[in-house]
Amino acid sequence: GDSVTQMEGPVTLSEEAFLTINCTYTATGYPSLFWYVQYPGEGLQLLLKATKADDKGSNKGFEATYRKETTSFHLEKGSVQVSDSAVYFCALTEPFTGTASKLTFGTGTRLQVTL
Amino acid sequence: DAMVIQNPRYQVTQFGKPVTLSCSQTLNHNVMYWYQQKSSQAPKLLFHYYDKDFNNEADTPDNFQSRRPNTSFCFLDIRSPGLGDAAMYLCATRLGTRVGGEQFFGPGTRLTVL
C-alpha cells in the first residue's frame, strides 16, 4: 500500500535559518503530493501541492519539488520566521476520480522557530 | 469566503453520554470526510461520503456514526464516548471530479470526555 515517510521532529531553528523537511513516498501509481501545515489548536491548511513529476509547488516562501526518480517531495524555505512554528504533514493521494482519493499522511514534523 | 465550518470548536461530554459534532461547507464539494486526530499524530480517517454514499473505514469503531442530510452538512455521532475518544475531530471536503484535488479541512472540534 501507499506510505509516506517524513523526518522525525521536533526541528528547532533560529529565525532566518534555512529549513528542509524530508519526505519520501511509496505509491503504486502517480500520486498527487501535498504539504499541509497545522498550527496549534487548528485544522490542517494546504501549504502547497504538486500533481506530476518535476512540478514545483510553492506558497508563502515554502517550496517542494515532485521528484519521481527519488520518490521525494522535500519541503524547503530559505528563511524561517517564528510564525512558521507548526506541525507539517507530507501527504499523498492517488489521482483517481470517482473515489474518495484518501490521503495517506506522514507522521508529521514539528517545527519550532526561535528568535 | 468559501470554507469548511465545524461546530462547536470545543465540546465537553461525559463518559457514555452521546455527542454530535457538526460540519458544514460552502464549497459545494461532493466528498466529505471525518478524521480523528490524537495528540502528536497524523489524522486518522474514520469515514467519508462520496455524494450520498457512505464509506466506513474497516477499523472505525461501531461507536462512531455519521449522517449527511444534504451536500452542505455532515454530522459525526459518538454514541457512547469513552475516555479514549478524546481527540480533535476534523472534517474535510473535496471535489471528487477533480483529479488530484486537495482536501479542504475545517478548524476542528476538540472533544473532551470526562
Explain this structure to me?
The complex is a heterodimer of chains A (115) and B (114). Chain A is mostly beta strands. Chain A contains no helices and 12 strands. The model of chain A has no long low-confidence stretch (mean pLDDT 92). In chain B, strands 2, 4, 5, 6, 9, 10 and 11 form a 7-stranded mixed β-sheet that branches. Chain B starts with a strand and ends with a strand. At the A-B interface, strand 5 and strand 6 of A face strand 5, strand 9 and strand 10 of B.
Taken as a percent bin, the fraction of beta residues of chain A is: over 45%
Please give the number of β-strands of chain B: 11
Average pLDDT across residues of chain A? Answer: 92
Which two chains touch over the largest interface?
A-B, 28 and 29 residues
Number of contiguous helices of chain A: 0
Summarize the structure.
The complex is a heterodimer of chains A (115) and B (114). Chain A is mainly beta.
What is the fold's blueprint, element by element?
The complex is a heterodimer of chains A (115) and B (114).
Chain A: E1 3-6, E2 11-14, E3 19-21, E4 23-26, E5 32-38, E6 44-50, E7 56-59, E8 62-65, E9 75-77, E10 86-93, E11 104-105, E12 109-114
Parallel strand pairs in A: 2-12
Antiparallel strand pairs in A: 1-4, 3-9, 5-6, 5-10, 7-8, 8-9, 10-11, 10-12
Chain B: E1 4-7, E2 10-13, E3 19-25, E4 31-37, E5 44-50, E6 53-56, E7 64-67, E8 73-78, E9 87-94, E10 104-105, E11 109-113
Parallel strand pairs in B: 2-11
Antiparallel strand pairs in B: 1-3, 3-8, 4-5, 4-9, 5-6, 7-8, 9-10, 9-11
